[in-house]
Write a structure and sequence with these properties.
eight-stranded antiparallel sheet, 2 helices, mainly beta, about 140 residues
């Protein structure tokens, strides 16, 4: 594919895929994966600005999807029966083949492991003015692979 001569072609957020435990989440609308460093900052006597360093990190994310299956309810049922925290692997793929990024680097793939669902998990929802069910699932992750 040739580059445009005059215009830039940034990555389109509309082009991509989300996988949960290797299965494509066909009903996904939005996915965010975030790395947040745990930052220490401090000064010594005579310093005008602080030094900073990373001491650790947290990984969080969210997936917004239109409900087309019952995997969340199944994970909840399994937890209530076994007491074992459900853990997932989540992968986000940005694959806009018409972007400058794709031309130089290919797809941008991020895989996070040890994902544990956090926040409210919607079991059911009814709304006389509503249209379709959309879930926003939040999670924390243990690591990036």
């Amino acid at each position: 594919m040739s580059k445009m001569e005059y215009n830039k072609s940034p990555i389109s957020l509309r082009e991509g895929k989300v996988f949960i435990d290797g299965v494509e989440c066909m009903d996904s609308l939005k996915c965010e994966l975030k790395f947040t460093p745990d930052v220490w900052s401090g000064k010594q006597l005579g310093e005008k600005s602080p030094s900073s360093r990373w001491l650790g990190f947290s990984i969080t994310g969210s997936i917004t999807r239109r409900r087309s299956n019952n995997w969340i309810k199944e994970a909840i049922k399994k937890y209530t029966k076994t007491g074992a925290t459900p853990e997932f692997t989540i992968q986000g793929v940005m694959n806009d083949e018409n972007s400058d990024y794709y031309e130089d680097h290919g797809s941008d793939v991020v895989t996070v492991v040890g994902c544990v669902l956090t926040g409210d998990l919607l079991l059911t929802m009814l709304d006389s003015g509503g249209e379709v069910v959309e879930d926003t699932i939040t999670f924390s992750a243990k690591d990036i692979v």
